[in-house]
Write a structure and sequence with these properties.
This protein is of the alpha+beta class and 184 residues long. It is built from four helices and nine strands, in the order ββαββββαβββαα.
Length: 184
């Protein structure tokens, strides 16, 4: 998918649900306002796409306002106002990678950073053999599959990874979650 709806992807005027510290909706907020104000808690999704012990990584586009040219989980994004996290995860997969997968909810975690605070709703999707994502170049500069050894080598070599992506990948390889593989 190469184009995106006016209210999606990297639109700073996208409206998000504003939530409290228990992830309950208390209002709405523009995405641009959440990027610099950690008191504005919102929701995001992170999707680990995996196959036989490998994870799919994306290199965020140079055009991204947050963490450009940083390696991240296969797919991530904001949850729009009134949208459920799982629906947002499916939308983000279609927007960024041109695919949709059956998803398993893994966890919800509160992420506090110096510039923003959000609940990360984390999902996993098993990639069937032959999966060929079609990346949106406005969102993703490159993708690559990597096993744990390759990840550790890239990390040692100085590759820039998103901090939450690192935490999630390490939890994945440590077997923190029971995640089904694709059938067939």
């Amino acid at each position: 998918m190469h184009g995106r709806p006016a209210d999606g992807a990297d639109n700073p005027d996208e409206i998000l649900d504003l939530v409290d510290d228990r992830d309950r909706v208390i209002g709405t907020v523009r995405k641009r306002d959440t990027d610099g104000d950690p008191s504005l808690i919102h929701r995001e999704v992170a999707i680990l796409v995996h196959r036989r012990g490998e994870l799919l990584w994306q290199l965020r586009s140079a055009a991204k306002r947050v963490m450009p040219l940083t390696w991240d989980v296969a797919c991530a994004g904001h949850v729009g106002a009134g949208e459920g996290p799982e629906a947002a995860a499916h939308r983000e997969l279609r927007e960024e990678l041109g695919v949709d997968l059956e998803l398993t909810a893994l966890e919800r975690r509160l992420v506090r950073q110096s510039n923003e605070t959000y609940f990360a709703h984390v999902f996993a999707g098993a990639a069937p053999d032959g999966l060929e994502p079609t990346i949106d170049p406005d969102e993703v500069a490159a993708i690559e599959w990597c096993d744990e050894a390759g990840y550790r080598g890239s990390l040692a070599g100085g590759r820039a990874f998103s901090p939450i992506a690192r935490e999630l990948a390490e939890a994945f390889w440590a077997g923190r979650w029971r995640i089904p593989e694709a059938e067939g």
